[in-house]
Amino acid sequence: MDLNLKDKVILVSGGAKGIGGAISRGLIEEGAIPVLIDPSEKEGKELVALAGGKALQIPIRLFSPEQAQEVVQTTIKKFGKIDGVVNNAGANDGVGLEHGTPEKFAQSIANNLFHYYHLVHYALPFLKKSKGALVNISSKTAVTGQGGTSGYVAAKGAQLALTREWAVELLPYQIRVNAILPAEVYTPMYESWINSFPNPEEKLQEINRKIPLGKRMTTPEEIASMAIFLLSDKASHITGQHLYVDGGYTHLDRSL
Ligand code: NAP
User: Which residues have CB under 8 Å from 195's CB, separation 6+?
Assistant: First the structure.
């Protein structure tokens, strides 16, 4: 199947490692040009080398509107267009109701949510020209809760709401907007979380047993396949959707 992604320029926040890294790699395999916005220089360099230079890393931790504006300007200067955005960068930072503070709560939302808006806002004039596609990486925690992580979950819920809101606002430009909700994906972020338990291996096995399909984690590549499909013309009539790529973890019968 030709996804028609060759030479398409796609911004990928957090695009050097984990889920974002797999999305960048998949885009490279399709001949697209990912722009990796991620401070992880070593992993980013490896991906740019894999692309034979047909990729760009912007090694920053996105936070301010000015940074997002600069990302868009740098991309346009180098490639002249933007065909898609994958909002993916984020971290489950454990700012809860009982053990957080109002300041940490606000900071967590800012870290996890605001750059999703900034990047799309500044890329919009170019997305209108290309009739581009947007993918927001949210989380099942937005619909199930997790406990102890109010800021992250509030941001993830807002990303789902913005997916619908942007899908509507951008209808006149034929820009499609969709969200993916991963549940349990073994990435560097997941590994450091699992290692925070006294017996990480036992905890991992306990979680695996609860994943209906195959009793295993989703791979970053399985999330990437959905993201790449949604970016492609093959998803040409899909917009405003929340897609669960989770082996049935969120919805299937608990007794399975
Ligand atoms: P990861 O392993 O930590 O990889 C994320 C990458 O993004 C890292 O290279 C990280 O750099 C970078 N990054 C973080 N914040 C950034 C920012 N503000 N600007 C630019 N780069 C930034 O995380 P992941 O597990 O792949 O998670 C990716 C997305 O999936 C997140 O939105 C997360 O909420 C969502 N998700 C993941 C899971 C899961 O099971 N893994 C489940 C549900 C949702 P540093 O390492 O230097 O921070």
Answer: none
Q: Which atom of ligand 1 is least distant from the CA of 14? A: 7
What's the pLDDT tens digit per position in 105-140? Answer: 999 999 999 999 999 999 999 999 999 999 999 999
Full residue range of the structural domain in which residue 97 is found: 9-183+220-245
Tokens of 223: 């999330």
The reply to whether 173 belongs to the active site is no
Which positions ≥6 away from 16 have C-beta within 8 Å? 24, 36, 38, 40, 41, 43, 44, 47, 57
Reference 182, options 73, 90, 45, 62; nearest CA is: 90
Residues 95 and 213 in one domain: no
Q: pTM above 0.85?
A: yes
* Pocket flag, ligand 1, residue 20 (CB < 6 Å): yes
